Amino acid sequence: MARRPLELRDEAWLEWQEASLHYDLERQGLGDRFDKAVVATLEHLTVVAAKYAVHENGFRYAPVSKFPFRVVFELDKGTVVVYNIYHMRREPRARRGS
User: Taking the CA atoms of the chain, what radius of gyration do you get in angstroms?
Assistant: First the structure.
């Protein structure tokens, strides 16, 4: 299968980095495990993004394996555009994609 290009918006990057730091402070090495799980999810999306259902708000959601996070994205002209990576039990900072 062909891979789609991926665009990670600033908000998604910031949410990811804050969560990674939080996990590292919680337990050494946990942030690295979280990073690997996010990267695996993003790589997966470059191949199968179109298989995720489009919700009423026009976005798609992919879970991050083994962590209570989800990736909020859309397909825009063949590019996977990631808007948020956030904890599912907390209010995302940005309203877009929530």
Answer: 13
